[in-house]
Amino acid sequence: MLDLAKEFWLFLRVRKKWCLAPIVIVLGLMGLLIIFTEGSALAPFIYTLF
């Protein structure tokens, strides 16, 4: 997993595609939100957002 992050960072730095960074960060945070609220009482409310 760390290699993937390193490769992505090198890609951004070399290709100057800085507009991709916020998209990937937001998608990662949404994924973590879904994973961490999966077993809680908040899950039905989170899934209605999508």
Short summary:
The chain has 50 residues and is an all-alpha fold. The protein has helices at residues 2-15, 20-36, 43-47.
Describe the structure.
The protein has 50 residues and is mainly alpha-helical. The chain has helices at residues 2-15, 20-36, 43-47. The model has no long low-confidence stretch (mean pLDDT 84).
Which key terms come to mind for this protein?
72% helix; mainly alpha; 3 helices; elongated; 50 residues; single chain
Helix content: over 70%
Order of helices and strands: HHH
User: Which regions are unreliable across 5 or more consecutive residues at pLDDT < 50?
Assistant: none
Number of strands: 0
Derived structural class: mainly alpha
- Strand content range: under 5%
Assembly context of the chains: single chain
Largest sheet: none
- How far apart are the termini? 26 Å
The radius of gyration over CA amounts to 15 Å
Annotation field: number of helices: 3
Q: What shape does the CA trace take?
A: elongated
Give the topology.
Blueprint: H1 2-15, H2 20-36, H3 43-47
